[in-house]
TrEMBL record:
Pfam families: NUDIX (PF00293)
UniProt xrefs under Gene3D superfamilies: Nucleoside Triphosphate Pyrophosphohydrolase
Keyword terms: Hydrolase
The protein's name in its UniProt record: NUDIX domain-containing protein
Keyword 4Fe-4S tagged: no
Length: 163
């Protein structure tokens, strides 16, 4: 019976995702998305594929979305997204994702969409860290953690199930 329970948990699946927090001159690089009549921002990165470690996933995703190679630094945030707990539960009730956010460096200032941009991706933008609350950057709850981290050098690593 225990083996059956393990198989059920595995089939439900928790998706891992690696995200890049790229900062230069007091600004964080974000992917700009336009869909369903609105524009918003997300951090570069995406889902880990079977057989990849998190760094490999992040390197691949940054090439796909930014057309750039990144130098991956320390892990600064871990965020969970359990869809049934948030405002889009009707669409995301099945979703459970754990995101690992790494501080990264990149050796360029401008970016074009990479070889496989996200759906709705229309470009990138450098967002001033001190003004993040003015932007629709998702997850929105992360904005205060980013501001705190870059303002004081302190923030908790595990930010929990936030959106």
């Amino acid at each position: 019976m225990a083996q059956k329970a393990i198989v059920k948990v595995f089939k439900m699946g928790i998706r891992n995702s690696a995200k890049a927090v790229i900062v230069k001159d007091g600004k964080v690089l974000a992917v700009k998305i336009h869909e369903n009549g609105g524009t918003y921002y997300i951090l570069p990165g995406g889902g880990q594929k079977h057989g990849e470690n998190l760094h490999q996933a992040l390197e691949r995703e940054c090439k796909e979305e930014l057309g750039a190679e990144v130098e991956i630094g320390e892990l600064i945030f871990v965020r969970e997204y359990i869809g049934k707990n948030h405002e889009l539960a009707a669409y995301h009730s099945h979703a459970h994702q754990t995101e690992f956010m790494f501080l990264c460096n990149v050796n360029q200032d401008t970016f074009i969409n990479g070889e496989s941009p996200d759906k709705g991706q229309i470009g990138t933008e450098w967002l001033p860290i001190n003004d993040l609350l003015e932007y629709k950057l998702f997850p929105q709850s992360l904005r205060t953690h980013l501001i705190s981290y870059f303002d004081s050098g302190k923030a908790k690593t595990y930010v929990g199930d936030i959106n």
